[in-house]
Amino acid sequence: MNRIASDLNISRQTIQKIAKRDFKLNNYQLCRDMKRSRAVEFEIHSPLRNASNMQDEYIAPSVLPSEIRHAITSMKNCTAPGPDRIKPEHLKSIQPVIIKTLARLFTRYLSECKVPTSWKTSKTVLLYKKGDPDDIGIYRPICLLSVIYKLFTRVILNRIGRILDEGQPCEQAGFWRGFSTIDHIHTLTRLIEVSREYNMPLFLTFIDLKKAFNTVETEAVIEALGNQGVPTQYIRMLRELYDSFTTRISPFYKEVIVNMKRGVRQGDTISPKLFGAALENIMRCSEWEDLGVKAERMLAEFDSACGKIGLRLNLTKTMFMKNGLVPDAPFTLNGTNISECSSYVYLGREVNMMNDLAPELCRRKRAA
């Protein structure tokens, strides 16, 4: 401090007063931001919300610089840049004045429900999964989106994420904060263990959806958000983000522009939550309570509900597994036989009716 005072040719007492004043000002601004953040959280996450009144009267609060900083911090490094050629590492080194500018811009986009036209385009790359390389169906399309766009959707997700989590049932652990695939694997293995302990019949159906993220209808996603209590302003904002969206793809070294009229974008943080909301919406419409344990009719009803929102079952990967207490009988869907399996790789782990870990350990050794 003495060096700074001598360089500025002012007394030490004067610079101490300036430092105290700046300290008080920074504390005041920090407290103000914290109060506004708590006000935003209360408005967004209050459990005492009436869906119809909230959708008609709700006005989204201004985006705070602290929200921008939090969203930037949570972005992963070493990801491919989008059309803007900006990486998350670049955002993490920007000055506070840029963060304040982004907060003002995001606030304007939210209030007007309009976004830059550059956000409505992306570049799609195809990632090879496994199988025949000549089969285009085994490639997974990934959208390389603008990083500023992904920052904006992450801010929206941080605001509405808890509402979407509250809309999920306790049976659902996918894309839910605090849960992972381990929870579902534990539930399944425990179910097999109890059925063996008490000699109970157990019939398991493993359902695989064909290119689910790419085929779900956008209107179904928007409707699901409204049914789960998401404020209308955020729904209008998401509709604007998905309206007139295009992607550029170069399958044979020649760029092709494709209009995206369905699907959620793989590579966007908010996409799993949007897809989960749409899937939960059709699960709520299923009247499985009246079907008891009739697995074939339950699967047929689920397939019919999925078809209404653009989803299709992948019958080559949809299989069933049963223990010895279940009598043999054909299991079909729309006249197509569903394959029976003795083991199934479920969420990355091979499971079987004996809860035997040896096949899973051998599979991991082969993959190592």
Percent of residues in helices comes to 40-55%
What's the domain count? 2
The largest sheet is: 4 strands, mixed
**Major sheet: arrangement of strands:** 2-1-4-5
Shape designation: globular
Low-pLDDT stretches are: 1-10, 21-54
Rg is: 26 Å
Question: DSSP strand (E) fraction?
Answer: 5-15%
H/E element order? HHHHHHEEHHEHHHEEHHEEEEEEH
| Terminus-to-terminus distance | 58 Å
Structural class: alpha+beta
* Number of H/I helices: 14
Return the average pLDDT rounded to an integer: 83
Number of strands: 11
What's the gist of this structure?
This is Reverse transcriptase domain-containing protein. This protein is an alpha+beta fold and 368 residues long. The protein contains 14 helices and 11 strands.
Structural key phrases:
368 residues, alpha+beta, 2 domains, 4-stranded mixed β-sheet, 3-stranded mixed β-sheet, 14 helices, globular, disordered N terminus, DNA/RNA_pol_sf, Reverse transcriptase domain-containing protein, RT_dom
Structural summary, described in words:
- The chain is α+β, with helices and mostly antiparallel strands and 368 residues long.
- The protein has 2 domains: 1-45; 46-367, no CATH class.
- Helix content is 49%, strand content 12%.
- It has 14 helices and 11 strands.
- It has helices at 2-8, 12-45, 51-57, 65-73, 88-91, 96-112, 147-166, 181-197, 212-215, 218-227, 232-242, 271-285, 295-308, 358-367, and strands at residues 121-128, 139-144, 203-206, 245-249, 256-260, 319-322, 332-333, 336-337, 339-340, 343-346, 349-352.
- It has a 4-stranded mixed β-sheet, with no helix packed on it.
- Helix 4 (65-73) packs across helix 6 (96-112) and helix 10 packs antiparallel against helix 11.
- The chain is globular, with a radius of gyration of 26 Å.
- The termini are far apart.
- Mean pLDDT is 83; it is low at 1-10 and 21-54.
